[in-house]
């Protein structure tokens, strides 16, 4: 067992957020750790697609505040459902979900290029309104798995994604009147 533990596993355990023994440091550091390269790549893809518009609207400092506040809210929302867990939560997914929540409020009619891959029948891209893409992300990709896997750790923190998105919605409403275009 000890031979299979890497230095990165130890970093994750030390700096990931563990609801059973919460710490303020881990609440922030967990937002910058990832479970692997595909986890990091997926987060960066969503941030690349949706983040620039939100950053333009809020400015760099406002964007950073929204990202951090959304990530903290997402982590705490996740912790509500697994208060005794010693398994560390890592990743920026909750913070990025907060950015998606802002995008949902501020840019619902923007069109997102979606790749449809039904090999060998269909291989194309279509433009879909952001509210449909993000609604699908929230409901089908997060809420349904969260409800269906309640208590059965799937390895994906759907609760953090949901909590982040809700925090983003709230922040978008609250910050809307103070942002550049609000």
Task: Give keywords.
globular, single chain, mainly alpha, 182 residues, 2 strands
Write a short abstract of this structure.
This protein is mainly α and 182 residues long. 62% of the residues lie in helices and 9% in strands. The chain has helices at 7-15, 24-29, 37-81, 93-106, 130-148, 158-176, and strands at 111-118, 122-129.
Explain this structure:
- With 182 residues, this protein is mainly alpha-helical.
- 62% of the residues lie in helices and 9% in strands.
- Strand 1 and strand 2 form a beta hairpin.
Task: Give the helix tally.
Answer: 6
β content, as a range?
Answer: 5-15%
Number of strands: 2
Which percent bin holds the helix content? 55-70%
Q: What strand line-up does the widest sheet have?
A: 1-2
Unreliable residue stretches:
none
Q: Characterize the main sheet.
A: 2 strands, antiparallel
Characterize the overall form.
globular
Question: Given the helix and strand composition, which structural class is it?
Answer: mainly alpha
Mind telling me the C-alpha Rg?
Answer: 17 Å
Following the backbone from N to C, one meets helices and strands in this order, namely: HHHHEEHH
Q: How far from one another are the termini? A: 54 Å
Mean pLDDT: 89
Indicate the topology.
Layout: H1 7-15, H2 24-29, H3 37-81, H4 93-106, E1 111-118, E2 122-129, H5 130-148, H6 158-176
Antiparallel strand pairs: 1-2
Helix pairs in contact: 3-4, 3-6, 4-5, 4-6, 5-6
């Amino acid at each position: 067992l000890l031979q299979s533990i890497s230095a990165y596993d130890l970093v994750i355990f030390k700096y990931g957020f563990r609801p059973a023994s919460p710490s303020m440091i881990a609440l922030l550091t967990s937002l910058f750790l990832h479970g692997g390269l595909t986890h990091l790549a997926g987060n960066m893809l969503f941030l690349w697609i949706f983040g620039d518009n939100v950053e333009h609207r809020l400015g760099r400092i406002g964007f950073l505040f929204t990202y951090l506040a959304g990530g903290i809210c997402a982590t705490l929302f996740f912790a509500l459902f697994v208060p005794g867990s010693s398994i560390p939560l890592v990743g920026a997914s909750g913070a990025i979900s907060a950015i998606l929540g802002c995008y949902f409020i501020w840019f619902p009619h923007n069109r997102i290029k979606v790749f449809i891959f039904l090999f060998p029948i269909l291989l194309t891209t279509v433009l879909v309104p952001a509210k449909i893409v993000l609604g699908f992300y929230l409901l089908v990709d997060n809420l349904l798995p969260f409800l269906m896997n309640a208590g059965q750790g799937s390895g994906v923190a759907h609760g953090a994604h949901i909590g982040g998105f809700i925090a983003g919605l709230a922040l978008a409403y609250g910050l809307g009147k103070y942002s550049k275009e609000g």
